[in-house]
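2024-03-11 09:14:02 DEBUG pipeline.ingest accepted 1 chain
2024-03-11 09:14:02 DEBUG pipeline.ingest length=182
2024-03-11 09:14:03 DEBUG pipeline.predict start
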Amino acid sequence: MNVLLHICCAPCSVMSIDVLRKEGHNLTGYWYNPNIHPYTEYKNRLDALIGYAKVVDIKLIVNDFYGLEMFTKNVITDLANRCDFCYEERIRVTAKYAKENGYEGFSTTLLISPYQKHDRLKQVCEKIALEEKIPFVYTDLRSYFREGQRRARELPLYMQKYCGCIFSEEERYLKKTRITIN
């Protein structure tokens, strides 16, 4: 199947690409990640992916929209559920692009991360597939996460320290500095 693969970052794409190709899919990578902040992080992840796409010979389409204002406006009133907006935004744009450009289906490398809300992500993808009338190609990739991370370090690829949004970066630092007082 000719599949448009939304790619969140190079490390998550390593095993995602391998597994989906072994399943017989012809892949095109698609970068659309307006949630990633600050800009230097966005640029580091995009540059790493561009380089990796050349290494594994995958066509990469870059929707280069740095969406700080759009993203924060849409999540600021409900930070606890910001991932829902993030999934919905990235997957819908990917699915629409896939449909408009003749792909037979779409998927996402987000499915490899044990840190994502996997079931919620899958629900969002399935809902958008129905609404946009294009198949969602589902493979539970989580069992490949550690192997992908290991291979990404060996290459070496840029390895981020948080999911991507400014709020996940804050959580990363708060977890390191939070002191519990009994």
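2024-03-11 09:14:41 DEBUG pipeline.report The domain at 2-177 is CATH 3.40.50.620 (Rossmann fold).
2024-03-11 09:14:41 DEBUG pipeline.predict end
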